[in-house]
Amino acid sequence: HNGRIGIDFEVNNKTTVGILFSTFSNLYKMESVNTSYISINNTLDTTIIIDNDERHPITNYSGNLNLTHQFAPDEKLSLNADYVYFNDNNDVNYVNNYFGNNGNFLFSDLTRSVKETPIRFWVGSADYTKKFSDKVEMEGGAKATISQFTNDVQVEREKQRSWLVDQGLTSIHFLKESIYAAYTSFSVKLGSKTSAKMGLRYEYTNSNLESETVKNIVDRHYGNLFPSAFLSHTINENRSVNFAYSRRITRPTFNDMAPFVYFVDPNTLFSGNPALQPSIANSFKSDYLIKRFILSVTYTNEKGTITNFAPRVDPVTNTQTLAAENQKDRKSVSLNLSLPIRFTSWWNSQSNLSGLWQELNAIYKGDPLQIAQKNFNLNSTQTFTLPKDYSIELRGFYQSSGLFGIYQMKAFGSMDFGLQKKFADNQSSLRFNVSDVFGAPRFNPSVNLPEQNLVVSGRLQFSNRFFRLTFTRNFGNTQVKTNRVRTTASEEEKQRVNAN
To answer: Across the strands, what pairs with 187?
Structure first.
């Protein structure tokens, strides 16, 4: 359920004050069965069938206060103050049924986990733009973000009809983080065919993580500069080239940082990594445009790369934990081709072909681990305009085998179908959609490094085929002034929660 309401008040013809409130509530429920096979010397020893019952409600409330002042047609100041609250609960019950190698039932045991994670953000920003002349334009601003979460996880196992707390997996963590940033950029026209943009952003971060028993698990205070530069040159009316450089930061999502427990089987579980740190990448990009066709080449060198589902094995309990980890670095070269083609007046095509080479330098059990891979990706959308306001859309992708963190993954793909009818009043439409026409794609990650005692193979399916019939009807007077289009100060922070 989603709700959004706002109001703008025009103080005068130069100043506007706005208030915006939004909320959502999402209740995810799942019942599933996992089957795990344990083999010794390639001979089946035990089969475990796990019945999972999961309940995962997420709620959000956010408020924004905005003031915009237009000093002149080419000079504007925008101020934003945001408060965002998320609450993420996750309760899972497991029934573990054990069977022998001949299929005979051995025994059952019960496990349950409970997680509650309230997350809060306070964000303030000021953005200023001014056009000094037809050739020079400046942007500048500052932003402050203060966030905190409490992550409470408890895992219990049933022993002799009593629930006992698993102390190794039960914990309460507290994270406090503040990020202060300032930026400026200048756009300059160097001639009738050449333009440039240069920017510089500075961020200072304070991050402190502790638990009920251990203080300052992470206590970091650091600053970073992020320069960027862009150059564009028009060769003629049909051709142009672009060159760009940027240094950027990728902060881990709070979902990856907040410890949680989700069992695949009694000895394998997904979890979060509260000590996860941001990655920083330097990227160089070049574009060549011929009419609407675009060829791009990008080189990226990233330090502290964040990889998902990195395995860790506890030698005492033989429990394997899959969580996000920081790796040493990742280098990549990508080649992208955008092909918009209009075959006929009723058939439009948009295809994107990407080729990628990447090399990951990781650390596993304290030893260096290097993995290199080449792959390509194809995305294509075909739109057919039919008589009587009907239209059909086919959309699909194909991903060749490649890297996913330290894993190698097999090729997979998918295709969606859509049929739409617009009605004569132009206020309503009827759509029929089918996702994953040929079945949901399956994600098959694997690692085969026996010399490192690391051999992992899995098959994951994250979606199902959906059939949707949607009727849309617009009400009201179309001549009424539309709402002001603006972004709030907390858009980036909401993405880090990965739940909006």
So the answer is: 137, 197
Residue 301 CA to residue 298 CA, distance in Å, equals 10
Instruction: Please name the residues in contact with 266: beta carbons below 8 A apart, sequence gap of 6 or more.
Output: 48, 50, 96, 109, 111
Residue 22 to residue 483: CA distance in whole angstroms: 15
* Average pLDDT value for residue range 3-8: 94
Return all residues near 350 (Cβ < 8 A) that are at least 6 apart. Answer: 338, 339, 340, 341, 380, 381
pTM of the entire predicted model? 0.83
| Alpha helix (H) residue ranges in 186-325 | 254-257
- Start-end of H helices in 125-265: 254-257
Higher model confidence: residue 299 or residue 267? 299
Rounded Cα–Cα distance for residues 369 and 372 (Å): 10
For residues 116 and 86, what is the distance between their CA atoms, to the nearest angstrom? 11
What is the C-alpha to C-alpha distance for residues 303 and 205, in angstroms, rounded to an integer? Answer: 17
Per-residue model confidence (pLDDT) at position 482: 66
How many contiguous H segments (helices) and E segments (strands) does the chain have?
2, 28
